[in-house]
Design goal:
Distance between the termini: 43 Å
Radius of gyration: 23 Å
Length: about 425
């Protein structure tokens, strides 16, 4: 019996040169169009996925796919919802997922183009009467990534926080859905993941915190409220951390916590009492109006999603109770939230108001795995950094010695190991 040869491994992105890509698209252009117009929803879906993967290879690939009009195939798929023949859920969801991938990888000008071309179509899908939960999740995810792509390109009228129009309308839909007590857990988690994507950039965070939206409040309710499902709580804590700057670099854009220990003359001029600490990470902090909105949402979070009969816990007590649960992903989400909370005066005040919470954060024996140990220590270092910027005699310094000692002994309680081990980044769901 002849041996069956294994299928060849897919070529890495770098192995497909610009010349080869151009040849592929030019020689197979008509074939792509035929497949995209197939009567089979499965064939159209596979074609949309292939085009999205080709476009994601490089900026040049994105340009080539767009220049040859192949984005129009995705547009036609989404336009089918207005054809009067009903909503083809499979084809529509795959097209939306491909669009989300394109928007996520799009360079600036292409991102603005995708927003202008596709955002109205996404909104029509979202508002279609035949849309189900799967379609709504796909539409929200792709719509949020289009808004992020457009903001990244500084597209006029798109990145203006609080602006009316499609971004605001999309986020109103998300906020209303999250406020619905009947919302399925899977849909809620997906919506919260989308909020985290939005909040990763400063422009997106300000949009999420805009006046007239209940999005931050709904997110805080899932993160800190009494009756949130565990998976939704984890997603919501990460979303709040993203809004507060856990993923923003020193310029306020998406990225790692690259500016975590750098100062800024601009932020140094801002009043501590207003929440923007001198020398706090420059990319994390938002303008005063949005910092105030974030503070209101976080501090009201514990009172949401309750039974309306018992008094709400304080933020610090909620965080302490969550850290006592046996779910590693939940504890990591709490540590990451504390890391983004501490650089703000009001956030630091919440953390430092509970000695039990400080004891738990500073206990090197509280965690055993590498990941939670490092994130616990990242939270400690963030609190210690914020405390180090306070003037002598500040009331928040009452437990400072405990925090500084925990910082110095590192993630595993070994003196000298602390600052050398950074917390691992948390990859947001795609």
């Amino acid at each position: 019996m002849a041996a069956i040869e294994p299928a060849p491994a897919p070529l890495p992105a770098a192995s497909l040169s610009n010349e080869h890509l151009e040849t592929l698209l030019s020689t197979q252009h008509d074939r792509f169009r035929d497949l995209a117009a197939s009567e089979s929803a499965e064939v159209r879906a596979r074609c949309a996925g292939l085009l999205a993967r080709l476009a994601a290879l490089s900026e040049h690939a994105m340009h080539q796919v767009g220049e040859r009009g192949l984005f129009a195939e995705l547009a036609r798929e989404l336009d089918a919802v207005d054809s009067g023949v009903g909503l083809d859920t499979l084809a529509c969801v795959v097209a939306l997922d491909s669009l989300r991938g394109l928007a996520e990888d799009a360079p600036g000008p292409t991102g603005a183009h995708l927003y202008e071309q596709f955002m109205p179509r996404v909104m029509r899908v979202l508002e279609h009467p035949d849309g189900d939960a799967l379609t709504h999740v796909a539409a929200v995810s792709s719509g949020v990534m289009l808004v992020v792509a457009a903001a990244r390109a500084a597209s006029p009228g798109v990145d203006a926080p609080g602006a009316s129009g499609m971004p605001h309308k999309l986020l109103q839909h998300v906020a209303a859905a999250l406020g619905d007590p009947e919302l399925e857990e899977g849909s809620a988690s997906a919506f919260l993941d989308a909020v985290a994507r939005l909040g990763a950039s400063k422009e997106g965070a300000m949009l999420a915190l805009s006046h007239g939206l209940d999005l931050a409040d709904a997110t805080a309710g899932y993160a800190l409220g009494e009756r949130a499902p565990e998976a939704c709580r984890v997603a919501a804590l990460h979303a709040l951390a993203a809004m507060l700057g856990a993923d923003r670099g020193p310029d306020g854009g998406e990225g790692s916590r690259a500016g975590a220990d750098r100062g800024s003359s601009e932020t140094a001029r801002t009043s501590v009492e207003r929440g923007s600490d001198p020398e706090a990470p420059p990319g994390m902090l938002l303008p005063d109006l949005f910092e105030a909105a974030a503070q209101r949402a976080v501090e009201a979070g514990p009172s949401m999603r309750g039974d309306g009969q018992t008094a709400a816990e304080s933020v610090e007590n909620v965080l302490l109770s969550l850290l006592q649960k046996p779910f590693e992903d939940l504890r990591v989400a709490v540590y990451r939230f504390v890391t983004s909370l501490a650089p703000r005066r009001w956030g630091l005040a919440r953390v430092m108001s509970s000695f039990k919470l400080i004891e738990r954060l500073c206990d090197p024996t509280a965690e055993s795995g590498m990941r939670p140990c490092q994130w616990r220590h990242a939270a400690v270092c963030s609190v210690a950094s914020a405390l180090s910027r306070l003037p002598e005699g500040d009331p928040l310094l009452a437990f400072a010695s405990t925090v500084l000692h925990a910082r110095d002994i590192g993630p595993f309680g070994v003196p000298g190991s602390g600052p050398a081990i950074p917390a691992p980044p948390v990859a947001l769901p795609r």
